[in-house]
Amino acid sequence: MSDEDEIILSDLPDDELVLQMHDDLYDGLKDEIEESVQILLARGWAPYRVLTEALVAGMTIVGKDFRDGILFVPEVLLAANAMKGGMFILKPLLAETGAPRQGKMVIGTVKGDIHDIGKNLVAMMMEGAGFEVVDLGINNPVENYLEALEREQPDILGMSALLTTTMPYMKVVIDTMVEKGLREDYIVLVGGAPLNEEFGRAIGADAYCRDAAVAVETAKDFIARKHNRLGAAAG
Amino acid sequence: MMDPQGADPLSQLLASRDWLLADGATGTNLFNQGLGAGDPPEFWNIERPSDIAALYRGAVEAGSDLFLTNTFGANAARLRLHGATARVAELNRAGAEIGREVATGAGRAVIVAGSMGPTGEIMAPMGTLTQAEAVEIFHEQAEALKEGGADVLWVETISAGEEFRAASEAARLAGMPWCGTMSFDTAGRTMMGLTSAELVALVDRLAHPPLAFGANCGVGASDLLRTVLGMTAHAPERPVIAKGNAGIPKYHDGHIHYDGTPALMADYAVLARDCGAHIIGGCCGTTPDHLRAMRAALEERARGPRPALEAITAALGAFSSASDGTGDDVPARRPRRRRS
């Protein structure tokens, strides 16, 4: 760590600074990320460009190494925390400049389950990828999900369960959505340690996401397909 | 080989036998008895004690030498969700008392292991739970399990080294022997990135080490045995525990069903012993039928050589990841360009 002081972020040209930010995200250095975001903004970068080229691109690298079993939860939490620091600066600016957004997600851990480590990771990675995320927290009965869908009008509903005793509750939620004729209005993604792809299909989810990185990829994929479909219908 | 505090019943049993059969699932078995999705299983220790006694007896009658109490989630952090933090002592005591009664009626030596699951929180500095708070949470539970008559504390499904240490300290404060297992469910490591080799090293450093340690839950039987091999490769002083899931969860007609058959779990049990495990059991999805097949296989089949990874995948199926973070082919962190 001794040579850390030797790097003067503001001396780096844009392209080097962005690469440095990718490294700093990887290493979970929040202060450095905040400083770099301010530098790029001061150099006239649009907030959306800082978000995508520096933060989202950096978190994509983190997500890949998490998916591949190179980074684990502690490192990803640190990286996400650093990204949050940058996002905190960018968020109001993004709202002002009307930057495009990927989509909106409502996410929560199901009734009976207090585990929110995985769910929080997904929420942070989704935000990192440019999604708007409404986090319902833990222990959500079906009513909470329905209210949030009504209130937030998201594109995606994400549900998480970490226990074999709570995972069937996801089906309760999906069945209720079907009953109310709401199921087709949303992309439903599920995740959690005891789940698998077949389980996701069996309970009627659109997809099972093995981890936070896969969740982001899957969400982007579904949103793109949805847009294509809407585009085709309009054309 | 045994601890100096070897007078406890588990140490005695371990000294007299070269393998012990532990139990199977708790949560998934209670599901089959009608537990609702999202309901805390531990309330049944008070509301439906005869169902809990039946759960324990199911394991004992199938040949388990040791069973875990229905107290996995009965710590203050987890019970908070159900507004039941005040019931930690009551639920744990009751869970252990029912166990004591079943064990006493077994007609042979059966160990009551007081189950202690994770707090579900992330420990500082990454999260908010401090070491002192974690010790206090586990200690409260440990004292109640002791009071209820548990022979040994059984800390399971842990992901973080800090949490494992906190549980160890709680067992020390309660003056109880303990066993501890972690769940290696993420590319062969725990969720927090711990490898099998790192757990061996961690156990050796503890002031109050467990009587036995190992792996439970995780992904499938194959992964779990790779983890056990990773531990026994270091010739640990203490017995190693293997408690793997009966395959992978599937959903059929409103029920969770694990796809591992009794025959598969019998192969798993024998392979686990060949891998060097002393205490062998199941986890999620493991029913008394599985346990009976495991017991029979352990009694009837001869010990084999330490299996190669290929022998494990041939018998039990593929691993969930290419590497488990030990050995030479560990995927490397991305090189940093500047800071070091």
Protein described:
- The complex is a heterodimer of chains A (235) and B (340).
- Chain A is built from nine helices and five strands; from the N terminus they run H-H-H-H-E-H-E-H-E-H-E-H-E-H.
- By secondary structure, chain A is of the alpha/beta class.
- In chain A, strands 2-1-3-4-5 form a five-stranded parallel sheet, with helices on both faces.
- In chain A, strand 1 (104-109), helix 5 and strand 2 (132-135) form a beta-alpha-beta unit.
- The mean pLDDT of chain A is 88.
- Chain B has 340 residues and is of the alpha/beta class.
- Chain B has a single domain, classed as Homocysteine-binding-like domain (TIM Barrel), CATH 3.20.20.
- Chain B has 13 helices and ten strands.
- Chain B has helices spanning 9-16, 27-32, 44-47, 49-61, 76-79, 88-104, 131-148, 161-174, 196-205, 221-232, 262-274, 288-300, 309-316, and strands spanning 20-21, 66-68, 111-116, 152-158, 178-182, 212-217, 240-244, 249-252, 255-258, 279-282.
- In chain B, the strands form two sheets. Chain B has an eight-stranded parallel sheet. Chain B has a two-stranded antiparallel ribbon with strand order 8-9.
- In chain B, strand 8 (249-252) and strand 9 form a beta hairpin.
- Classes of the chains: A alpha/beta (235), B alpha/beta (340).
- Chains A and B meet through helix 1, helix 4, helix 7 and helix 8 of A and helix 2 and strand 8 of B.
